[in-house]
Amino acid sequence: MPKILVTYRPPGDALDRLADLGEVDLWDGTDAMPRKDLLARVGDADALYSMLTDKVDEGLLNRAGRLVVVSNMAVGYDNIDVAACTSRGIPVGHTPDVLTETVADTAFGLLIAAARRFGEGVDYIRNDEWKKWDPNLLWGTEVHGSTLGIIGFGRIGMAVARRAAGFGMRIIVSSRRRAAQADDLGIVQVDLNELLIRSDHVIVAVPLTEETTGIIDAAALVAMKSSATLINISRGATVDTDALVGALRSGQIAAAGLDVTDPEPLPGNHPLAALPNAFVIPHLGSSTARTRIAMANFAVENIARAFAGRPLRASVNPGVPSRPPQD
Ligand code: DGY
For the chain, what are the domain ranges? Predict the structure, then answer.
């Protein structure tokens, strides 16, 4: 029986499905699988069912002589050294499409919550400060009819744009590739600096790469309007956290809505967590039962296909052919 190392108990019946494919070695801790345990247990694994918190790098792959597939239960795969997997002939699976609309919903939720100061409103009640209706209370920034800048125009960026169109927003995008879909939707493509200057709200929807690490740095925050909201639903490291804390404190920008942070998990005593104009949630972008179960099953399917010598349902290195586990 091939062995499948699973680094976190996945939702739904994914474990039963994996058990139909091989012998499951599950890390069932409450925390992310410690690196030392991952390294100790990957040696005899034929498949790795990984989470975005597991670093799949040279150090791990050097100990993983049997691996024929890495299947990440996430659409993002910045935790994986894909080139190192490719050079060893290991296909890397991820879970696109099934979470696109759910993450776009999260982006819009964060945008409205941060721009309209919902977090401060909740605190106002919890602190027992609500004594009368006040026409001057907690004025926010309009979302409908404003200009939304989307950085990155992949599946999720596009799904955000569809929602923004329903809110009567002007949409501008900045994307590494010329996005034909943007032209089709009448969306204007601009360079990053122009996007930052013109947008009332900015949403970061790029994958984390060397190029996008710190794409929102101190200079980017200076370029933004002082009334602007920054939303991040990609990965925390696309934003320079210290610069963001400074910009939120000084009023350089008005608010931020963050699903992802750097560091992650964000300690409760982190300065970002204490800022009234930062609306921060713990990486819940795809967190609905239906979506998380679909992702879990998708990641199982990628392993099933690899074991059968078939192309994965979604591979990030599609040139690497699947090969069944060794006997
Ligand atoms: C992903 O799949 O990469 C998301 O960040 C999970 O919500």
Answer: 3-96+289-307, 100-280
